[in-house]
Write a structure and sequence with these properties.
10 strands, alpha+beta, 289 residues, 30% strand, 2 domains, two-stranded antiparallel ribbon, 8 helices, GTP Cyclohydrolase I, domain 2
């Protein structure tokens, strides 16, 4: 009998009343095995059709310096898509809050502790970057290139995930293009709490030309769908590969922050020759972030 992801995650603090920590505590971090969702959509951890990573941006990192004066910084954490676990977001927030009244000697000490703890939770080495506020302001806001599909003239009343919409994704199957599309209308809901997750999604591909109208209807169908951010992006990637028969594909979503954290998953076919540099897509926030 297949595993039920929701029943297997009843131990998570997500959706439960929680006391906020007052001292550093790595035990607050909670892992969610990626295979729970991947099995549902026909993916195997041993033969993933994509490479990628999840970029977390934390805006509420603070600790006490030896003088007792607080320090504040912004953190970026990149978790490989090959890691056995994703990091559950509420536990991540509680963990970061545990630094607030704890003394650390330097930015470097904090970064080392974060890297050790988060790598342990993810089951694979993660990268951690800590930015003083003045340094982070240089990142600025980004504007995605390519065609925004949000103004397509469509009518829809489908707000429950419906991959069959993509049956009409490529009406001109003999026309191969390289194209960049994006939408700011992605919304899904947290798997556990049902709270809304708002995001923008960038899709670059080479393959039969996709109908922007059909793609927009498909993305809107996630509106009442309950799934974690990372899992939604993998589902979108898998569906577009299946229905679009892409030679190359990249899917990146940038979600708005909640509790001082935003999550930005990126998945792409392993060999990229014509599509944008994934590293550049994960640098610089969008307007809603």
């Amino acid at each position: 009998m297949p595993e039920n992801p929701e029943s297997l995650m009843q131990h998570l603090t997500l959706g439960q009343a929680t006391e906020y920590p007052t001292v550093y505590d790595a035990q607050l971090l909670q892992a969610v095995p990626r295979h729970l969702n991947r099995t549902q959509i026909g993916l195997s951890d041993s033969a993933l059709p994509f490479v990628g990573r999840d970029l977390w941006t934390g805006y509420e990192l603070s600790w006490l310096q030896p003088s007792g004066v607080p320090a504040v910084a912004i953190i970026e954490v990149e978790v490989p898509a090959t890691s056995p676990n994703l990091i559950e977001s509420k536990s991540f927030k509680l963990y970061l809050n545990s630094f607030n009244q704890s003394v650390f000697t330097s930015h470097e000490t904090v970064a080392e502790q974060l890297q050790n703890d988060l790598s342990q939770c993810a089951g694979e080495s993660v990268s951690v970057r800590i930015y003083p506020l003045d340094d982070y302001t240089q990142h600025g806001l980004e504007h995605w290139h390519g065609h925004c599909i949000d103004h397509e003239d469509i009518t829809t009343d489908c707000y429950d995930y419906t991959p069959d919409i993509l049956n009409d994704l490529c009406p001109m199957k003999d026309l191969t293009v390289t194209e960049q599309l994006h939408s700011h209308l992605l919304k899904s809901n947290c798997l556990i709490t049902n709270q809304p997750d708002w995001g923008s999604v960038f899709i670059a591909y080479r393959g039969p030309k996709m109908s922007s109208a059909t793609l927009l209807k498909y993305l809107i169908s996630f509106r009442n769908h309950n799934e974690f951010h990372e899992q939604c992006v993998e589902r979108i990637f898998t569906d577009l590969m299946q229905y679009g028969r892409c030679e190359e594909l990249l899917v990146c979503a940038r979600y708005t922050r909640r509790g001082g954290l935003d999550i930005n998953p990126l998945r792409a076919t392993p060999k990229q020759t014509l599509l944008p540099d994934p590293t550049k897509l994960l640098r610089g926030r969008l307007a809603r972030q």
